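Kindly draft a polypeptide, keeping tokens residue-aligned:

***
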Amino acid sequence: MVSSADTIFALSSGNLPAGVAVIRISGPTAFSAAEALAGVLPAPRLAQLKKIRNRNGLLLDQALVVIFPSPNSFTGEDCVEFHLHGSKAVVSAVFAELGDIAGLRMAEAGEFSRRAFENGKLDLVEAEGLGDLIAAETEMQRRLAVEEGFGGQSVLYAGWAERLTRARALIEAELDFADEDDVPGSVSEQVWSDVARLRDEIEGHIGSSKSGEIIRDGYKVVIAGPPNAGKSSLLNTLAKRDVAIVTEIAGTTRDILHVDLDMEGYLVRFFDTAGLRETGDLVEQEGVRRARRAMEEADLVLLVEEIDSYPEQSVIPEGKQVLRIGSKLDRHKSADTYDICLSVHTGEGLEKLRERILGNLRGLWAGSTMPSRARHCDFLKQASNSIQEALNGSQLDLRAENLRAAASALGRITGRVDVEQLLDVIFSQFCIGK
């Protein structure tokens, strides 16, 4: 059982070896532990070059040392950073010295961020956004993470909760002081129109969640179609490397292969699937089953067929966006029965395919806040449903209770209300040094 009274330490920079390795120490004995290795510490937030020595006085390294007294640190506790040379041996030696100091231990995954949350330095949405920012691989993922991690989304939810609080205050004033002359006689005129607008705002916010999910987790494009249609060749061409094995033998691809591409800052995940056909081969049957499941989970299906061929009818899940691709244009004439005709050998039609995919992505996000996690959406739906119950209700006290429940659901998103059971799950997904 870990204790928040412990002083913790961990590597907070990237994989070793590296140019610089940053070791972070946080907790009540952070300064005394740093003094044991570096001697007299510099003034707060002033980097100073220090010799780092072990208990026997042996020089381990030279490092920049920076201290951050509480509460003005990332965790809200006393913090120290050692900026060492990024050697595995150096870091291991410093870790060994720190680990031998009483009251110090290695941090667990996400423990620095969890302490920041517990000390009021950031809320859960900001913590999740910070984790997403560290993991961001594309420009749009970075922008979305910045919007979450630096408080934009939290401000929106706090504003909604404040509007609900004001509405409840007016309702309770009418309930408690209905006979007083200075209390308005009808709360409904002042409250319920704003509450209805608030519900519409929340529903619109929920409606943008699919865009947030695509930006955060990637736009899933499944390449499907009959055997030997050129699906694997198309994947290799888009990836600009040999991801899939390509042969003239039908049924070569039996499992799902995928490659992630950065297309104008958007993460696009292409999946190559087994050829869709009836087969007696048990392994190929499993490949076809997986292909159909991948299509069900896709944001876009590229149905690839060789031009002028007559394959078996491919069954596409209902409601999926589909682009019909005529392949091997270098061997056939273009046909109007396809959305795009292309050749992976000449490159004709490939740019048109890229533009069609990017056309689906460019309008996803205009920079406004939007939920990107199922957890957020679940609580937003609870808030919306509670508000709707309040709007439909007839008893004023019950309607006020519904508004309280809605505000509580919004509070659970940021972690300000009853979320202890969520903390272990959320912060365990962070890296050790964060």
